[in-house]
Design brief:
The complex is a heterodimer of chains A (about 350) and B (about 80). Chain A contains 16 helices and no strands. Chain A is mainly alpha-helical and about 350 residues long. Chain A is flat and about 70 Å long. In chain B, about 40% of the residues lie in helices and about 25% in strands. In chain B, helix 1 crosses helix 3. Chain B has a 4-stranded mixed β-sheet. Chain B has one domain: 3-Layer(aba) Sandwich (Glutaredoxin). The chains are: A mainly alpha (about 350), B alpha+beta (about 80). Chains A and B meet through helix 4, helix 6 and helix 10 of A and helix 2 and strand 4 of B.
Chain lengths: ~350, ~80
């Protein structure tokens, strides 16, 4: 093992990158024929039967989603190593309400977010003169709309739902930012926040290209390892639905529309603090049971955007009242999205 | 005596960075104290937006990343 690692480090960096990309493309091209071969030749299942289709679907979809996830997350991680939050903050400080809020929500999509960074990020934004509403737009969009959620939605449900989720997430973030900005709630930010004055920023030793790729690869491995069980579960459920649940049944159950479904799902989503991946299997079942798309998206958003651990962390910079307003505004936005999509796609 | 500060909330990456910092001290063979700053106001006032941050002798050299021990040792030697 140690010799293997030592040898790998000695390989030229660009050769490793090139080899990785090459392997990825080969795996991508071989995936479909290989899945069919394993299901129908090796396992001897018959195409067109429920079991055959379910197994072929699982064997095709699992590598597909994992490849997509690995590829996209790595590329995004490399790109985002060029976007420093410091630069984002400077470009947000001097804008009007609407352009600033919209830009903040957009930046929230591309910048990494870990709730452990929420507090320094919040103080840093406010300290640099970024308006409160603009800061909140960023805080809402960042955990909710990200490349992992988009890749999984795209891979499992198709581009329509992925893009709908992204558009809706941006709309909620911008709406919440505009409302909070308009309310003028600066007095409900913890007082010490306004007294922080940052000294000279980061001396900025720029990472080398090799470090950027290495960092990106490390974070990709970490993300894939974390979401892997949920992806397997989601695809297994999807395969069962694909193979065994007749469409008639779905349509029949889907006929029963409950007007309270959206708020109930949003309320259920709050204590379920998880990454977007963990909600995918649940969303899949909900959709298959005939739940409208708006309700499913609202549930996913509630899980990612309204999380109790994040509130606990933000409590360090927000007085309780502002925390409540924040949660209420975001929840209201999610409800609007849920009902809106149900209405549009009824 | 050099001072290395790990600025972080105690998250996983912050712990890892502290380990790397200690390894770096050993690699570089310098006299250095490794501190872990957890106060959020202090971290923010140092200009760090993304944890974990790393400062050497009061100067912030990285934020939001976990540089390897070898890289940190290089900074210590510079």
């Amino acid at each position: 093992m140690t010799t293997l690692v030592a040898e790998r480090i000695r390989l030229p960096f660009w050769l490793v990158v090139f080899g990785g990309v090459f392997l990825w493309v080969v795996a991508w091209l071989l995936n479909a024929p290989l899945a069919d071969w394993v299901a129908f030749e090796l396992l001897g299942l018959e195409a067109g039967t429920p079991a055959g289709d379910a197994v072929a679907f699982f064997l095709y979809d699992l590598p597909k989603v994992l490849l997509l996830l690995t590829g996209v997350v790595t590329v995004v991680a490399i790109l985002r190593s060029f976007v420093s939050p410091d630069r984002v903050r400077r470009s947000l400080a001097g804008r009007g309400a609407l352009p600033g809020t919209a830009a903040a929500a957009g930046f929230g999509v591309i910048t990494p977010f870990c709730s452990c960074s929420a507090v320094p990020l919040f103080i840093g934004f406010v300290e640099a003169g970024v308006p409160l509403g603009v800061t909140f737009a960023f805080l809402v969009a960042s955990p909710m709309v990200n490349e992992v959620a988009l890749v999984l939605l795209w891979g499992l449900f198709g581009p329509g739902i992925a893009l709908a989720y992204m558009a809706a997430g941006l709309a909620v973030a911008i709406g919440a930012g505009l409302v909070i900005g308009r309310l003028g709630l600066e007095r409900w930010v913890e007082d010490y926040v306004w007294t922080v004055h940052a000294t000279a920023g980061i001396a900025g030793i720029r990472p080398t290209p090799e470090e950027r790729v290495r960092d990106a690869w490390h974070s990709t491995r970490e993300i894939v390892r974390r979401v892997f069980p949920f992806v397997v579960l989601g695809i297994a459920i999807g395969a069962l639905i694909h193979g065994f649940v007749p469409t008639d049944a779905v349509v029949a159950i889907g006929g029963t529309d409950n007007p309270l479904a959206v708020p109930v799902l949003v309320a259920l989503g709050i204590p379920l603090y998880a990454n977007a991946a963990a909600t995918i299997p649940i969303v899949e079942v909900l959709l298959a049971k005939g739940l409208p798309i708006g309700s499913a998206i609202a549930f996913m958003m509630a899980v990612t955007a309204l999380s109790i651990p994040e509130f606990v962390i933000l409590r360090r910079v927000l007085k309780p009242r502002l925390l409540v307003v924040f949660a209420a505004v975001v929840a209201a936005g999610i409800l609007v999205v849920g009902y809106g999509f149900n209405f549009l796609f009824a | 005596m050099r001072v290395i500060e790990v600025l972080g909330s105690g998250c996983q990456k912050c712990q890892l960075l502290e380990e790397h910092a200690r390894e770096a001290v050993a690699i570089a063979g310098v006299e250095a104290e490794v501190r872990h700053v957890r106060d959020m106001a202090e971290i923010a006032s140092r200009g760090i937006l993304q944890t974990p941050g790393l400062a050497i002798d009061g100067r912030v050299v990285s934020a939001g990343r976990v540089p390897s021990a070898a890289v940190i040792a290089g900074w210590l030697a510079a």
